[in-house]
Write a structure and sequence with these properties.
about 80 residues; mainly alpha; globular
């Protein structure tokens, strides 16, 4: 399972986001209904699954699924 699939699977299994809503441009709060605690939980689940941690100072910039996936991709590539 690649990084994108892992993140999307977390959204489906932990937050009950329908698979048909999983688009890169989908907004994490508005389209998926994640509140601030859900968002932090999503990041923590992804960090555990992927094995790396995002910089907490940049989290407020992550507004879409594509933003979140790109942040983890950049981190993975920098290792």
């Amino acid at each position: 399972m690649n990084l994108q699939e892992k993140i999307r699977e977390i959204l489906v299994t932990k937050f009950e986001v329908p698979r048909e809503k999983l688009r890169a441009e989908a907004r994490l709060v508005e389209d998926f209904g994640l509140d601030s605690l859900d968002f932090i939980a999503m990041v923590v689940y992804a960090e555990k699954e992927i094995g790396t941690k995002l910089d907490r100072t940049g989290l407020k910039e992550l507004r879409t699924l594509g933003d979140l996936e790109a942040a983890f991709e950049r981190l993975a590539q920098s290792k």
